[in-house]
Design brief:
This protein is an alpha/beta fold and about 450 residues long. It is about 40% helix and about 15% strand.
């Protein structure tokens, strides 16, 4: 059979508020052409992010009712701790209210001027927390990952030759951490192979550089390994997950992704000394070590979600859903990241809107066009998000100009996805009508969240 059905039944529904195209034109202007500034009630299909937007299961809701809200030593924490230890094999577990809080703690301790953090690709908040510490984040994406329309099984891999050269050039003592992001969010949601993680681990061991895994979408990445990497086809997802984490000295995770939770995250590691420093900072920023800024009910939901996400039927449906929309777009000639990623569809805005120069932010222009045409909210992952300025205030563009349409877990049905496909194709057919944008107000860091733009 070709049809992949949702591996769940719907018990509760939430209404969608519909708007007209004329209304959306005015709403986008009022939001200064920034999708983050739109009200969610004015969005028909919200693909801004898959973070914290999942539908929780009946078991998770039941777990929430059992959440214990004790300030210290809550049984909810210990259930959470055991589940994280079981999955990661890491004995020390530090809860935080979300992934960027874990990053803030980690990089505040390890970062600083003259330090470098190397990765396959850092996402926006990770890079921002690194740079806020005074350090520099360096992306070493493999060559295959730089070619958007050319399919390859593991386009999220790190360039291991470049990693070795970089460590030799800068000195291992100046590199506090190597980070492997699975899946590679900024690189199109593309997976990282187990072979690549092993090679990175070996290089890190050779030079004495600790390796951390950014594990937001660990289960999706492990499913890709199962279906694409030789030798893993007969292994279970928990077995693959266990091997993946065995190569890390520690990990960070936003539980708002592959744990189906609406809030939460954690740090896990082996290093007792680093953990103590992290806990010290946790207490003055997040909370006591057994709640870390989370309610007991959230700890329960995360623990249950971490187990549910490894269900192979769910992962098959999840990955196939992204493939489904990607195939529809490719067949219509729409420039899109190939093959489909784990959690989102990535449109190649530079090719899609080839008449708009990069200094007029084609990705952001495309985000606006999708909203006007069909009420779909996505996010630009290009020069608005990652671009910088040179000494003359000229834009130094990002390596790729993408628009990410992140699919929330267990939220939308196939008819919603068919609608999204139709809107994208319609916008592509009318793409010459779209004009570029210019920034009129921006913050010094993470400007894409709050920037105000206008048309030329």
């Amino acid at each position: 059979m070709q049809t992949i059905i949702e591996p769940f039944k719907i018990k509760s529904v939430e209404p969608i508020h519909f708007t007209t195209k004329e209304q959306r034109i005015n709403l986008l202007k009022e939001a200064h052409f920034n999708s983050f500034l739109l009200k969610s009630d004015d969005v028909i299909i919200d693909l801004l992010t898959d973070s914290g937007t999942s539908a929780m299961s009946s078991n998770q809701w039941a777990g929430i009712m059992q959440g214990d809200e004790s300030y210290a030593g809550s049984p909810s924490f210990f259930r959470f701790e055991v589940q994280v230890q079981k999955i990661t094999g890491m004995p020390i577990v530090i809860p935080t209210h979300q992934g960027r809080a874990a990053e803030k703690i980690l990089f505040s301790i390890l970062g600083g001027k003259g330090k470098y953090f190397v990765s396959n690709t850092l996402f926006d908040t990770t890079r921002a927390n690194i740079e806020f510490s005074g350090a520099e984040g360096v992306d070493l994406l493999c060559e295959e990952g730089k070619h958007i329309s050319t399919p390859a099984p593991f386009k999220g891999n790190m360039d291991t030759d470049a990693l070795r050269k970089f460590i030799i050039e800068k000195g291992a003592e100046n590199i506090p951490l190597c980070i492997v992001t699975v899946t590679n969010n900024s690189g199109g949601g593309q997976p990282v192979s187990m072979e690549n993680v092993r090679e990175v681990r070996k290089i890190c061991t050779d030079f004495g550089v600790p390796l951390f895994i950014d594990a937001c979408r660990f289960a999706e990445n492990c499913y890709f390994i199962k279906i694409r990497e030789k030798g893993y086809e007969n292994k279970s997802i928990p077995e693959i997950v266990s091997e993946l984490f065995s190569y890390g000295d520690g990990c960070t995770m936003s539980a708002k992704k592959d744990a189906f939770a609406n809030i939460g995250g954690f740090l896990a590691m082996h290093d007792k000394n680093l953990a103590q420093r992290c806990r010290n900072l946790l207490v003055i920023t997040e909370g006591f070590p057994t709640y870390g800024g989370l309610a007991g009910r959230d700890l329960e939901a995360i623990a249950i979600g971490l187990e549910e996400v490894m269900d192979e039927n769910y992962l098959h449906y999840r990955i196939r859903s992204i493939e489904y929309i990607t195939e529809k777009l490719v067949n219509a000639g729409v420039p899109v990241m190939q093959p489909g990623g784990g959690h989102a569809v990535y449109l190649d805005a530079k090719e899609f809107l080839s008449h708009i120069p990069v200094n007029q932010y084609p990705g952001q222009a495309l985000v606006g066009a999708l909203y006007i045409e069909g009420g779909i909210r996505g996010v630009e992952i290009g020069s608005l998000m990652f671009g910088k300025y040179d000494d003359n205030h000229n834009l130094m563009p990002a390596p790729m100009e993408l628009v990410r349409l992140a699919i929330p877990r267990r939220v939308y049905t196939q008819s919603h996805i068919d609608y999204v496909s139709e809107v994208i194709i319609e916008v592509y057919n009318k793409r010459k009508e779209i004009v570029g944008l210019k920034i009129v107000e921006e913050a010094p860091m993470l400007r894409h969240f709050t920037a105000k733009l206008t048309t030329f």
